[in-house]
Amino acid sequence: MKIKNQIVIVTGGSQGIGFGIAKCFAKRQATLVIVDVDLEKASQAAQKLLRLGAVDTLAVRCDITKRDEVVAMAAAVMKKFRRIDVLVNNAGICPFIEVMEMKPEIWQRTIDVNLTGAFHCTQIVATEMIKMGKGGRMIFITSLAENVTSSGQVDYGASKAGLRMTMVGFCTALGQYGITCNAIAPGMIMTPMTEHHWKQPGPAAEIKSRVPVGRIGTPEDIGHAAVFLASPEAEYISGITVRVDGGHQARCV
């Protein structure tokens, strides 16, 4: 798959799934823009990606819930690289609070980060892509929670379901410009924040019983799917969600 020299923005790209996605692009000689609210972490990630094969990198501090900061981020990318080829809307939060105990401000924060932030990024980056007239790729990281959730993830599930439909809506609007929009719905993924839980005997056994392929996913599993959706081979794929869950949801339906 040819993605060499693509300019790729990954929001929330300094760690976890976002960094795993960035690594997969770096290994195929893309240029990575790591967007995060923590500039130090973004800068550290950018340096690691150079060592992994990225042609160039840029770390940008940006709160995607603030539209003016997203505008400034896109402007910084255009100033340095003159174009944007791929946007990965990955940044997200999940407070894990029971819905009947959830304060309105927690609900609103989850919606702001997971859904409204992706709206800002997509609309603003798409504007730059349209000006360039060379198409582009929008990739939204949703979740199995867009279809199934729990009482402790109602805000998260609502935001991810909304994100899926945001992707579909942008797909219908941007296709005429050669811009495709797709989503990736990760299943259970091992990240630095979750490994303590998943490596315990009980949860480890749960993976074996719930995931048909018999293992938990890695951030790179999500990254490989993102690389494909950004490749020329995927130019006629738009408006879909790719579940990367080892078959997990097949057992839930």
Description:
With 253 residues, the protein is α/β, with parallel strands linked by helices. It has one domain (7-251): Rossmann fold (3-Layer(aba) Sandwich), CATH 3.40.50.720. The protein is 45% helix and 15% strand. The protein has 8 helices and 7 strands. It has a 7-stranded parallel β-sheet, with helices on both faces. Helix 3 packs parallel to helix 4 (104-132). The longest helix is centred in the middle third of the chain and has 29 residues, at 104-132. It is globular, with a radius of gyration of 17 Å. The chain starts with 6 loop residues before the first strand and ends in a 9-residue tail after the last strand.
Feature tags:
253 residues, alpha/beta, Rossmann fold, 7-stranded parallel β-sheet, 7 strands
